[in-house]
Design brief:
By secondary structure, this protein is an alpha/beta fold. The strands form 5 sheets. An 8-stranded mixed sheet has the order 6-5-7-8-18-17-15-12, sandwiched between helices. Strands 2-1-3-4 form a 4-stranded mixed sheet, with helices on both faces.
């Protein structure tokens, strides 16, 4: 009786092979991808058991089973299914182990800048970014994942400060959204992230570069000669100073009448738009600093005489008293007049090498004349339009010029210079020390309100980074933006489009339908 009952249910046992096959596949994939833990092993053993029950007991006593055509077809299907599943498992394994992405967006908005990739690849020690945020932002996570794929030494972690208060206290995370970067014993706060502020590639790359170089940039702005302020008390260089601090630089004012020398920790000294003359001891202090391997940026507006000729003469630089006018009309495209030349011609120099296709503008800029001097390497970094010319201002500050006069451009508006330090020997593995100088015939281009326009801020930041003799990777990284492809319609265009879609097109369709009906009759 028992044998008859078993024989009655025996034909159903063969269907156990299907869930057995599914369990075997799940166990293999889980074991390969996540590792052979207890769960994948259990799935694999259970699946093999069901397969054996289905294939052996489900057809016991049926000697003709293996000779049936249906068995052959089923075996072929089983082998094919196993092969497909094995291929899918291998593809998933390779995709997890060797992940790669292709950025097909127009502006490569999901691809790190070359400077960022260079910094990550040069990390010698394990470096970790820790974000204390219970709700990770997908955009920030994707940016960090791009960094992780760019270099093996970079990792990142998201920590929920409510679930792990001990780690939050250890880092000093007093609120959600705080981001830290650490490498060995070096740990520093990076920025806050939130709904209105996302993780910045520029900030992160510069922080990583500081980890690599282990040298902070200290920038001094001279004061006391009616230069632009950096404290926000008046329209000046507050945005520029803030941008430098975002790059982990230390920004300080410098009054040479009180110190008589440039501080030893100065990486760069910036003279931004002086309207009064420097005293002779102050000029000598700048000369001593520059000749000793220092770096100096001079931003000198027209109609000013800061008394720095004795400093500039050994470099072959003279400041023209005229202003440059761009008569090509290209400035009108962005709302600029001829007295604010639009610069699109940038020199082949680390400061401006990545500016191809960009533009900057300089309201009331004077030409910078460059003469060849032995031992001095001079590279023009800013050139006016060939359709420009230089005109003098009257003593009252009025400009009178003949619009029909022929152009005489281009003119050099900014130049970067360097020369070896006399008698200085290079340390082993280091480049020989050199003095660096950047002269631009305008300071207004980097003031508050204009700093973030076009490439104006990039010119300033890149010049400071080059002067500070930092690696090229710390130069300004321009954030990628999604191209606006939206079509803006006027009210009349919207009404016309609606009438065409709701009335004209249906009427045309109805007319064609009637015409076809009449032809068929």
């Amino acid at each position: 009786m028992a044998m008859k009952s078993f024989a009655a249910y025996q034909k159903y046992l063969k269907y156990l092979a299907l869930p057995g096959l599914a369990l075997v596949t799940a166990g293999l994939i889980a074991g390969i991808v996540a590792g052979w833990t207890l769960l994948p092993a259990g799935l694999l053993v259970g699946g093999i058991g069901l397969l054996l029950l289905g294939l052996v007991l489900g057809n016991q006593g049926q000697g003709r089973f293996w000779a049936q055509r249906s068995t052959e077809a089923g075996a072929n299907a089983l082998v094919s299914t196993l092969a497909v599943l094995a291929i899918l498992g291998l593809v998933n394994f390779l995709a997890v182990r060797y992940a790669s992405r292709v950025d097909l967006t127009e502006n490569q908005i999901f691809t790190l800048a070359p400077q960022s990739q260079q910094v990550v690849q040069t990390l010698e020690n394990p470096t970790r970014v820790v974000v204390f945020d219970p709700l990770p932002n997908p955009q920030d996570r994707q940016l960090l994942e791009s960094y992780r794929q760019a270099g093996p030494q970079f990792t990142f972690d998201y920590v929920n400060p409510y679930n792990d208060p001990r780690q939050a206290q250890d880092f000093g995370a007093t609120q959600t959204g705080m981001v830290f970067v650490e490498s060995g014993d070096n740990r520093r706060f990076l920025q806050n992230v939130g709904p209105s502020e996302r993780l910045s590639e520029r900030t992160l790359t510069n922080a990583l570069d500081q980890v690599v170089s282990d040298r902070a940039l200290t920038v001094y702005f001279t004061q006391g000669h009616q230069e632009f302020t950096i404290d926000g008390s008046d329209t000046g260089f507050l945005q520029a100073a803030t941008a430098l601090e975002d790059k982990s630089a230390v920004v300080q004012p410098l009054d040479l009448s009180k110190t008589s020398t440039v501080p030893e920790d100065a990486s760069v000294v910036v003279v931004a738009g002086p309207a009064a003359e420097f005293f002779e001891p102050e000029v000598k202090a700048l000369q001593t600093y520059l000749n000793g391997g220092g770096s100096l940026m001079l931003l000198i507006d027209p109609r000013t005489s800061p008394g720095l000729d004795t400093l500039l003469d050994p470099w072959g630089i003279t400041l023209d008293d005229r202003i440059v006018l761009d008569t090509s009309g290209s400035g009108q495209l962005v709302g600029l007049g001829p007295a604010a030349p639009l610069v699109t011609d940038f020199g082949d120099h680390p400061i401006t090498r990545d500016f191809t296709g960009g533009r900057s503008f300089f309201p009331l800029v004077r030409p910078v004349n460059v003469e060849e001097v032995p031992g001095v390497t001079a590279t023009p970094i800013l050139q006016s339009n060939p359709q420009s010319r230089a005109e003098a201002l009257s003593t009252e500050g009025e400009l009178q010029y003949d619009e029909n006069a022929p152009p005489s451009g281009p003119y050099t508006l900014g130049v970067a210079l360097s020369r070896p330090v006399d008698g200085a020997a290079a340390a082993e593995g280091e480049p020989p020390p050199e003095s660096r100088l950047v002269v631009i015939g305008n300071a207004t281009f980097a003031t508050d309100g204009l700093f973030e326009q076009q490439l104006n801020g990039d010119v300033f930041l890149n010049a400071v980074s080059w002067l500070g003799q930092q690696t090229d990777a710390t130069l300004s990284i321009r954030p990628r933006e999604v191209t606006n492809r939206r079509i803006t319609l006027t009210v009349q265009q919207q009404i016309g489009l609606g009438v065409f879609a709701l009335l004209v097109l249906p009427a045309i369709g109805l007319g064609l339908a009637v015409l076809m009906w009449l032809r068929r009759r």
